[in-house]
Amino acid sequence: MPTGSILVADDDSAIRTVLNQALSRAGYEVRLTSNAATLWRWVSQGDGDLVITDVVMPDENAFDLLPRIKKLRPDLPVIVMSAQNTFMTAIRASEKGAYEYLPKPFDLKELIGIVGRALAEPKNRKRTDDGDEGGENIPLVGRSPAMQEIYRVLARLMQTDLTVMISGESGTGKELVARALHDYGKRRSGPFVAINMAAIPRDLIESELFGHEKGAFTGAQARSAGRFEQAEGGTLFLDEIGDMPMDAQTRLLRVLQQGEYTTVGGRTAIKTDVRIVAATNKDLRQLINQGLFREDLFFRLNVVPIRLPPLRERAEDIPDLVRHFFNLAEKEGLPSKQIEPAAVERLKRYRWPGNIRELENLVRRLAALYPQDTITVNLIEQELSTPSIVPVEEETPRDEGLSTSVERFLAKYFSGYGDGLPPPGLYHRILKEVEYPLIGAALAATRGNQIKAAELLGVNRNTLRKKIRDLDVQVIRSSR
């Protein structure tokens, strides 16, 4: 059986009893106290192999005690428990040197497992104590079990440069998570640069990412710095990574492998020191099977995967989110509002296809348009029956034809240039945009058989081979 002495500090006698029984059954010697003073005396005397402590105790906050413990006994693992269960609680626990953070209520089997791992680890771990709480502006809101797990993962990542892949539906807050990783991580003093792959014309993505030299292409009248150069020493957030064209994927893979890149039209390799955080609302494994995303790039980006749950899977967070958004609206000058419990329950039963973004838009509308101080369930019913909650531009008509879809794309494409015009060569670029997914779909449908794909498309086999080569379409053969 495991051995070791565990010091437990919690002012809740029921918690102490439960921990005493569970840890004793697991084979550990347990000492219990209800205050921080006794815990500090035991630690000062050299007692205990591991500490389990609540954050809030009658005489002292554990976050004030933790730095003293780590200074006196840096190898002593400390597990912090809290019923506050916010993102900042997890971050502060990590910053103050805690081995692990556990939200209350916790799973006893998980706790026993964490204790065993902590006691088995080498005693020369170094932890960073920045001592900075990071202010009161909480970037992520929610106390559901799903969010608690995300907070714990983020807390472990703050002092690393590991590449992170954030997946989740549109509106779940992927950029907020990326910003939190930057703002509370060791690169916080560097720049945070975001780029949305879906919002940039495919032929300009490489120039946007890596920059270009004067004369590199028509319209390149001066050298331009890319996002990698702008993010040097900081974090580069690649949103909607699934929309990155294949040639740009190849160049990005080279950066991740070699730590350097060249500008478009340049010849000199440029070293880069950037942390990559990517995000997607698509199934990248499905794109890989369709030949639209490089598998080797996926594995390079997917070092630490984080899945953000849709709002319908964390409905218990809606009350906290509503209060948070009402507070933000009030700080922006909108009237203060309350919401009755029945109205909150109605919100919790809604499916939220637009996720947190949809909820935020609803709360702002409630604060701005209704004179009542208290939002009732009837007002909520009225709002939820209105189809305008989800932004129109994010919806795609079910029966929309290809021609209409292209028209919408072109309207958005031209509007992105304001009063100017896109670079010359638009006709061929648009044809290339259509050819790439068409050929990829044909190859996926025929499991990589180019003869069958050419027959399906109605083109000559040699023509298809040339298109595959020119467009850099990845062909994946399957015998299934």
From TrEMBL:
- Output one GO MF annotation: sequence-specific DNA binding
- Where is this chain's protein located in or outside the cell? Cytoplasm
Carries keyword Nucleotide-binding? yes
Sigma-54 factor interaction domain: residues covered: 140-368
Biological processes annotated in GO:
regulation of DNA-templated transcription; regulation of nitrogen utilization
Instruction: Quote the cellular component terms of the Gene Ontology held in the record.
Output: cytoplasm
Q: Which PROSITE patterns match?
A: RESPONSE_REGULATORY, SIGMA54_INTERACT_1, SIGMA54_INTERACT_2, SIGMA54_INTERACT_3, SIGMA54_INTERACT_4
Q: Which residues carry this modification: 4-aspartylphosphate?
A: D54
Cite the SUPFAM superfamilies for this sequence.
Answer: CheY-like (SSF52172), Homeodomain-like (SSF46689), P-loop containing nucleoside triphosphate hydrolases (SSF52540)
Output the superkingdom of the source species.
Bacteria
Q: Which NCBIfam families match?
A: ntrC
Please state what the protein is called: DNA-binding transcriptional regulator NtrC
Q: Which organism is it from?
A: Oharaeibacter diazotrophicus
